Amino acid sequence: MDDRLIDSLTAAVSAAPDDLTLRLHLAGLLVDAGRGPEAISHAATVLASDPGSAEARDLMARAMGTPPAADPPVAPADEPAAPAGFDWRAAESDLGGAVGPMFVDGSTEDPGPAPYDVESAGVRLADVGGLSEVKKRLEASFLAPLRNPELRALYGKSLRGGLLLYGPPGCGKTFLAKAVAGELGAAFLHVSLADVLDMYIGQSERNVKELFEVARTSAPCVLFLDELDAIGGKRSLNRSSGARTTVNQLLTELDGVGSDNEGVFVLAATNHPWDVDPALRRPGRLDRTLLVLPPDREAREAILRTHLRDRPVERIDTRRLAKATEGFSGADLAHLCESASENALMDSVGSGQVRMIAMRDFDQALAEIRPSIGPWMETARNVALYANASGEYDDLAKWLRKQR
Ligand SMILES: Nc1ncnc2c1ncn2[C@@H]1O[C@H](COP(=O)(O)OP(=O)(O)O)[C@@H](O)[C@H]1O
Ligand SMILES: [Mg+2]
Fold first, then answer.
1. Start and end of every AAA+ ATPase domain (predicted)?
2. Which of 39, 51, 294, 375 has its CA at a distance of 20 to 30 angstroms from the CA of residue 33?
3. Mean pLDDT in runs of 10 for the chain (404 residues)?
4. Closest CA to 373 of 391, 395, 338, 400
């Protein structure tokens, strides 16, 4: 019950980020629910625009007293944790259209076949730092055609085929796909291929088949196959025939044998395109590839800002941080922000004094965190040197040459 109210209020707060009263109220509930760290971020946001707020300071102090996220939020079964006398009904009707209904009966929408739910992620393309070239390609290859059926007809562009994103781990392939989902709303199916693989003989193929059936009935849509190497591995590498038939099934489905794939755009991602069966990359299948590289300095600054947006920070020199994080992936940067917050939190717990996250927390974190993409670079170098006869990794080779 409490959790649901918190969810509703969270949605209301993100719809009206400047409503400090609402935010304080949410922070109060979070503290009561034992979700201190989240409460701190809200209290800090209030403090940032109203440094004198006694209520915010008080909440901050209470939040610091509660143990950090270690244990899951507790939802008291029957006893409302809020101060007595608060009029919940009035509050809920005040929130009005800002939040969705608490209950739906599902009669209006078909839930569709089970595990591949059509998602609506909260991330938008604007949240993805850098990668402007990649975003442009995504826009041209399917976002624009998807949005403009008339233009599609005019230019005779069919909405099918696919695009394979590849690059070092943690540089935003999955994140980018989620952002595309955010742009497209319902028309996005996200599948991690590990979910499709099944140890029972024959089940994996059936899963793949079912997956494409769902996609075709949801057309026009984007089907995102994450971690493609888990399934689309070189057939020669797969000793067990089970895996081979799964790849074959995937090939059949991509070709749309016996059915029409019009309106199904396949977006796939992998860290190791060299382990992906070349047959998957022939024309009409995943025929275009796009290299997603680690963020440059500007992009790193943007990513850092995104990750610090909702945290209580003070005088953070993102420019200097961006300079000091050469070679970091997006995930490394996210990890850096996480560690800096942790440092500030532990310090506050230790001293009993609530304080904002400051540069010294970042310096402390920087001393410990190293870029994580080294091993990938080693492999990529070998591929660019010895396995690039056909020139398919030219852009990778070019980038590698630029790295010292
Ligand atoms: N360009 C980016 N902008 C913002 N955050 C990013 C970016 N790239 C990576 N991240 C952060 O790193 C995390 C891991 O990235 P992910 O997309 O899962 O990497 P992968 O390329 O391995 O799929 C993301 O959840 C996000 O927090
Ligand atoms: Mg990924």
1. 159-296
2. 51
3. 86 90 92 86 84 84 62 46 57 53 49 42 78 86 80 75 90 89 79 76 83 87 87 60 76 81 88 88 84 92 90 90 94 95 92 90 94 93 90 91 83
4. 400
Same domain, 49 and 158: no
Decide whether any atom of ligand 1 lies within 6 Å of the 128 Cβ: yes
Q: Same domain, yes or no, for 321 and 226?
A: no
Q: Which domain holds residue 9?
A: 2-64
Whether cis (ω within 30° of 0) applies to the bond prior to 220 is yes
Residues 166, 168, 171, CA angle at the centre, nearest 5°? 90
Ligand 1 centroid to residue 72 C-alpha, Å: 25
Whether 306 lines ligand 1, by a CB cut-off of 6 Å, is yes
CA distance 361 to 355: 11
From 133, 171, 300, 339, the mutation candidate for ligand 1 (largest count of ligand atoms within 8 A of CB) is 171
Last residue of a domain, one of 240, 258, 291: 291
Whether residue 87 lies inside any domain: the answer is no
What pLDDT is attached to residue 342?
94
Q: How many domains does the chain have?
A: 3
Q: Is residue 394 part of a domain?
A: no
Cα(12) to centroid of ligand 2, in Å?
A: 30
Tell me: do 252 and 333 sit in the same domain: no
- 156 and 236 housed in the same domain: yes
Query: Ligand 1 centroid to 11 CA: how many Å?
Result: 23
Cα separations (Å) of 387 from 269, 275, 381, 397? 20, 12, 10, 11
pLDDT given for residue 240 in this prediction: 59
CA of 174 from ligand 2 middle (Å) equals: 4
Is residue 95 a part of any domain in this protein? no
Task: Tell me if the pTM is above 0.85.
Answer: no
pLDDT of res. 85: 56
Would you say the CB of residue 174 lies under 6 angstroms from ligand 1? yes
What ligand is nearest to the CA atom of residue 169?
1
CATH value at residue 342: 1.10.8.60
Tell me if 328 is assigned to some domain.
Answer: yes
Ligand 1 closest atom vs CA 175: 17
CA pseudo-torsion sign 79, 83, 85, 87: negative
Enter the DSSP assignment of 83.
P
- CA of 170 from ligand 2 middle (Å) equals 7
Residue where one domain finishes, among candidates 242, 268, 291:
291
Clarify whether residues 140 and 287 are in a common domain. yes
Q: Is 163 helix (H, G, I), strand (E, B) or coil?
A: strand
